[in-house]
Design brief:
It contains ten helices and nine strands. It is an alpha+beta fold and 369 residues long.
Length: 369
Amino acid sequence: MPWNDNAGPGPWGSPPPNDGKKDPDRSRSDEPRSGGPRGSGGPPPPVDVNALLERLSDRLRQTFGGPSRGRAIAATALGVAALWAISGVYVVEPKEQSVVTTFGAYSRTDQPGLRYHMPWPIEHVELVPVTSIQTLDIGGTVSQPLSDERLMLTGDENIVDLSFTVQWKVSDAAKYVFNVRDPNTVIKDVAESAMREVVGRTALQPILTTGRGQLQDQTEQLMQRILDRYDVGVSIQSVNIQAATTPAPVLEAYRDVQRAAQNAESAANNARGEAAQIRQAALGYREQVVREAAGDADRFNQIYAQYKLAPAVTRERLYIETMQRVLEKSNKVIIDNKGATAPVILPPDIFRPRTSAAASTAAAEGTVR
């Protein structure tokens, strides 16, 4: 029997058992078609549309199992659609706001409460905490290994090892979500830049002692201005300096500078004290000279008034007073020209300079030799 005979086993063995069932497709293919025998070269047979529709209906019934199964599939589809619609219900907590996007574009910002949005892929919701304070640590602690982000140059060209924290919160949820890809990185970079700028115009000593409060306030204000310019939607709450010290490698040099500054300050204080003393002495001397000059002027005016009244008597009195002032300061011997002509022997003490005490005593007693 030829291999292509449907009744024979064929080249691959016996055909699979058919359990007595007749293949409708095969039976249709075995039926003679109108238009002559196969291969006769006649025109193709006309298409039987009804037969095609019947075959399609049979296939659909075999696939879906009849009307009851179709209703089950429809019910399942409706249930899936209902679940999809219900999945758009969500809750916004009191400390949050939700940013809703429609096909990726910003749509609205929802406040806390029970909310609804069109489920994915139409709308998407991102919850943003807007009331919680978030803390960003920059530089770590002093106990940790020294890092470059902690080393800053001060206004007086010193180096300070400084670490600080920044507390911030979201002020505009939409700007926070859309305007910046990585807000934490942006805030950290802005904080470090602002702190370096403020430290760069501040001396080291205030940073280490009493100027930290002013440093923190200036850094906070500068950070807020920069973030507002970037339109990040973030509000800076506080900047707190955790530690500010001199780095260990330059600590001894810094101490030398401090000692030199203290010595300079001490020398300057001493110089200011001496200058104050000299100034006080000069002021006293000036006052004395002015008063003496004023007294001499008054005395001259009085003498001149007497001189106008009695010129001769005044001249004689001035001469006597002048000679008295001159002679009372020297040793003197008075000789009467009417006396004997014997030689006068002067005592040796007369040539010695007189002390001020002896001169005043002689003037008081009116001693005449």
